[in-house]
Queue: 2 jobs
Job 1
Amino acid sequence: VPPVFKYKQLLGILERLNAGEIVIGDGGFVFALEKRGYVKAGPWTPEATVTHPEAGAQIVGVNCHFDPMTCVKAVKMMKEGVEKAGLKAQYMVQPLAYHTPDCNCQGFIDLPEFPFALEPRILTRWDMHQYAREAYNAGIRYIGGCCGYEPYHIRAVAEELAKERGFLPAASEKHGLWGSALEMHTKPWVRARARRDYWENIRPASGRPQCPSLSTPEGWGVTKGHSELVQHKEATSAQEMNRVLEMQKKAKSSA
Ligand SMILES: [Zn+2]
């Protein structure tokens, strides 16, 4: 019987992971908050990155910029590196809730849809089940989400790992697992979808016949450390905007 984690006092993240808990990170779902008017773009918080295993980080992982399977793959490689160095760590993954197979090395920030037209790329809850399983099988025990995550995505992650964690999330009270509530649906063809293998094998269409399935990322050659990426204190002036548009023209014509 897997242990049930019910704490009387708050524990640190390392204490929880080292006790064998699978922690579900309820990500920032930044865009959801932005769209709802709760947050505005502002200065960036640089994310800590692990480049040398000998640095001895206690939790190693990646956050944001790429889709779940890509991020799990990255953490797997990091884990290999850490283990090769003869070290031990806990592993964390907090990917996007967007599919990004067409991204280059900078991730979704270079996609033309970034940041306000990414919705057609959103993972389904069933994709999230797959991701949670893949992350767990890779040995990752802090499994969360970043931009694009909605509460039902996090619930799907927690439901996939319910057996391992020993409990279902509280929000599972609101629906049936694997679409089982559809047993009550009035349409018989929808009732026929009240089963796991239907949703596990669905290949959802985007419904956008004029749209490509993949995009071409921008390639301005501007990356971390470049002077163009310094956070501005003031909003972009009209003059600056002209300069940026010129840069865009140049980047497009050289592409
Ligand atoms: Zn993010």
Job 2
Amino acid sequence: MRASRPFIRTLYVGERLRRTGRLISYRQCEARFFGRLWSYRCLPFIYQPALTELVGSIKHLEEGRNSHYYLVMKRVPSSITPVIAVSRKSSTPLHRQIYDSFRDLIVQGNLMSGQQIPSTRTLAEELGISRFPVLNAYAQLLGEGYFEGRIGSGTVVSSSLPDQPTLPGPHGGRSTRILSGPRQPSKISAQLPGVTSEPWLQGRAAFVGSQLALDHFPFNLWSRLLALRSRKIVEASLHYGHPMGLRDLREAIVSYLRTARAVRCDAEQIMIVSGSQQALDITSRVLLDPKDRVWLEEPGYTLARHIFMMAGSRVVPVPVDQEGLDVAAGRKLCAKAKAVYVCPSHQYPLGVVMSASRRLQLLNWAQSTGAWIIEDDYDSEYRYEGAPIASLQGLDRYSRVIYIGTFSKVLFPSVRVGYVVIPTDLVDRFVTVRQAMDIFPSNLHQQVLSDFINQGHFERHIRRMRAIYHDRLNALVGSLRKDLAGTLKMLASGAGLHITVMLKEQASDVAISRRAALQNLWLWPLSICYLGSAPRQGFILGFGGIPVDEMPRAVRRLRAALQEK
Ligand SMILES: Cc1ncc(COP(=O)(O)O)c(C=O)c1O
């Protein structure tokens, strides 16, 4: 049975067992089995019969994938000293002050059941008082059942207390803040739609747009690289780093971009960021002032729109047709925009590739008006048909393109690593703005990723995943043609991890998506990608996370959802 708020420790059953059928490498596991603490230092290998006995003896052991066993335990947070203040000047005796503080923290829910309490010695040292009043207070709290002693864990907050706070209050009793006076958030933040109000964003199954074939990610290899880097921490990597990110990773990215994307750059121009979203944020802060006009593709990527809204920009929706962003229409709508945001390799959400002539028109417009082009190349690794498409940045003779890439699609989104290729004369501004935002990116994933690329795993991974996603795309297209040809019109489908479909009959995609979410079917409505008044109705169907053999069923469920009135 899974305890609430579990934390997981892993018992690795290594390669060696699989090969010999006898020995098990036993690592990173620290748990009490048979009454004693075993760790890999004292027990590097155990025999198969011992494992069977071990597994059988542990109640919360769940078998996971790849011969991993997960040990699920109730979380007991460590004994960080809670905020307790005592005053020698007070007429209340010290032991009473300590007792009152702990009791209040427990009753208000700030200390939870099972949470460890500092030892009397530690608390006395922290408070700069003798141990006697602390011992007295602990004895009383133990006596009254607020604390309990646990073998191996010292003193903890009693497990028989309810986890929920007992004091009523606007923050569930956890905060004593009084809500009063005007509580208006900024007008800019109030414009953004609430994340939790969109039910189709809450799921993790078919047809979520951001789902990947994570079961095919080489996690063992990734874990090994991660473990190597974690074990060999050098002191220099613990200090503040450079706002541009780690040199090693930037160089690895340069050679990939030059070869695979025809991007013209060197490592001095690469800034590592936490995904495209931060890249857009930094870029907009560097290039835009409030009220500047920015062309956005219509329909377009809503999260990019939100960044420009937060920057106080006036966004100008520019229609997208079969050739990508309609530059002539953009000129008519607003010739003097300060910037344009485009996905020329695979327009989001329609999937169109921007034609060569539109690319040249866009570059000419930018050069003649002094506008910036922000190129989002978010999933160009996955192109299944035709020749690879070079980046717009590679065509740019005037250094007007800021090129943005991400590892969210090609590795996994939680890695939160992306990059910006910055025109050389803007590097200094980007560095200054980045320094003011989050200073520099965290090291560990950058190191692991540069190892992953430099050792050739990245290229192999892309090649393997391209074949897998191509199969999944074909399966989706085949099922849609078979089951929904009369209901949905499919748009371009030779790249990426989603395809967009339009509803042939008048219906509200948002209403359908809301209903479908109740049945664990996640349809991202197309209409919300439009800013203008005539949105088209349809869905953005992610296929990355759906295995080929599950695709027909997913499409049949989609058909049922569309038939429901
Ligand atoms: C158009 C577009 N750009 C970028 C991203 C990736 O964003 P991030 O790198 O912040 O995860 C996505 C993800 O779905 C996307 O659709």
